[in-house]
């Protein structure tokens, strides 16, 4: 099992494979000090403690069973991470086989150090940076701690070191302690199938009630909704097989406007066609 990304404070669908030779193409986060981020990340994990009792753990039992059943029905990987005890309470991990690990190896614990070493060197800084910023944001928005979700993607090298697989992670507070601090984190992972191999990773923190982007590694995305109502209409019509001309006629708007909306959808989802964008948005619960 993987004991890696825990959130300072996991659901996998199985497939996007990036050839090992592509390493080093993206340098978006190369200006970040990975060593400093790693030290900050480790210190935050060490310093976090929660105000919980045994009765709090006892009350989690039925919820854990429900999450495990959901994973089985959906055929997805789910993990619940306990910040207080710094361990996973539940791991239904379905992507280790995709990375080349045998069933026997999957029963063994995969340390965070080993897992982090498997992450694409251009992406590791993003992982640290996103989770650190999520922690500080939630600390400043203490009263509504369950209303936010971190979404980020990154590439993981397979066991043989021959290819990278891009994962999409979602992280949110599942349970808070008696003081209202994050206690149990729900971490959701999907494999981004047919995702552009050379696409730079991205992360954003969204307010789940209104789907507003609160933080992002892309400044222009802040305070922006993932998709607008008009973009949602265009996605729905494109899914029905309508081309841009037909969509323009159906919505009584110009072809130029339709194409602008399509380009905005692809930009915001970091995808190259509407099928990829639709899958991405479904993974994160927007559609």
Describe the protein in words.
This protein is an alpha+beta fold and 287 residues long. It folds into two domains: 17-225, PAS domain (Beta-Lactamase, 2-Layer Sandwich); 227-287, Winged helix-like DNA-binding domain superfamily/Winged helix DNA-binding domain (Arc Repressor Mutant, subunit A), CATH 1.10.10. It has helices spanning 34-47, 54-74, 103-106, 112-118, 124-140, 229-239, 244-251, 255-269, 274-283; strands at residues 17-19, 78-82, 87-92, 148-157, 163-176, 182-191, 203-207, 212-216. Strands 1, 2, 3, 4, 5, 6, 7 and 8 form an eight-stranded antiparallel β-sheet that branches. A hairpin with a 5-residue loop joins strand 4 and strand 5. It is globular, with a radius of gyration of 19 Å.
Helices and strands, with pairings:
Blueprint: E1 17-19, H1 34-47, H2 54-74, E2 78-82, E3 87-92, H3 103-106, H4 112-118, H5 124-140, E4 148-157, E5 163-176, E6 182-191, E7 203-207, E8 212-216, H6 229-239, H7 244-251, H8 255-269, H9 274-283
Antiparallel strand pairs: 1-5, 2-3, 2-6, 4-5, 4-7, 5-6, 7-8
Query: How far do the termini sit from each other?
Result: 31 Å
Which overall shape is indicated by the principal axes computed on the Cα atoms? globular
Structural class: alpha+beta
Task: Spell out the CATH superfamily of the largest domain.
Answer: PAS domain
| Count of the separate structural domains | 2
**CATH top level assignment of the largest domain:** Alpha Beta
Unreliably modeled segments: 10-30
Helix coverage percent: 25-40%
The biggest beta sheet is recorded as: 8 strands, antiparallel
């Amino acid at each position: 099992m993987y004991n890696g990304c825990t959130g300072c404070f996991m659901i996998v669908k199985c497939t996007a494979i990036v050839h090992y030779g592509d390493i080093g193409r993206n340098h978006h986060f190369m200006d970040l000090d990975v060593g400093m981020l790693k030290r900050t990340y480790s210190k935050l994990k060490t310093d976090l403690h929660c105000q919980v009792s045994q009765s709090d753990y006892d009350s989690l039992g039925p919820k854990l069973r429900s999450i495990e059943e959901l994973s089985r029905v959906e055929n997805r990987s789910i993990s619940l991470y306990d910040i207080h005890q710094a361990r996973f309470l539940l791991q239904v991990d379905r992507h280790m086989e995709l990375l080349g690990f045998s069933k026997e190896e999957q029963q063994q614990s995969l340390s965070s150090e080993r897992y982090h070493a498997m992450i694409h060197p251009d992406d590791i800084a993003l992982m640290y940076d996103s989770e650190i910023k999520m922690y500080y944001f939630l600390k400043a928005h203490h009263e509504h701690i369950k209303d936010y979700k971190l979404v980020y993607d990154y590439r993981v090298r397979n066991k043989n070191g021959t290819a990278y697989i891009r994962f999409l992670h979602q992280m949110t507070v599942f349970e808070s302690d008696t003081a209202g601090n994050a206690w149990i984190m729900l971490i959701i992972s999907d494999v981004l199938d047919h995702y552009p191999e050379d696409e730079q990773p991205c992360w954003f923190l969204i307010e789940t009630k209104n789907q507003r982007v609160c933080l992002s590694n892309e400044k222009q995305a802040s305070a922006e909704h993932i998709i607008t109502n008009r973009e949602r209409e265009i996605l729905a019509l494109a899914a029905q097989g309508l081309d841009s001309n037909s969509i323009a006629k159906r919505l009584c708007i110009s072809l130029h406007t339709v194409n602008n909306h399509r380009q905005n959808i692809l930009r915001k989802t970091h995808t190259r066609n509407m099928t990829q964008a639709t899958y991405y948005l479904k993974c994160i619960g927007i559609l």
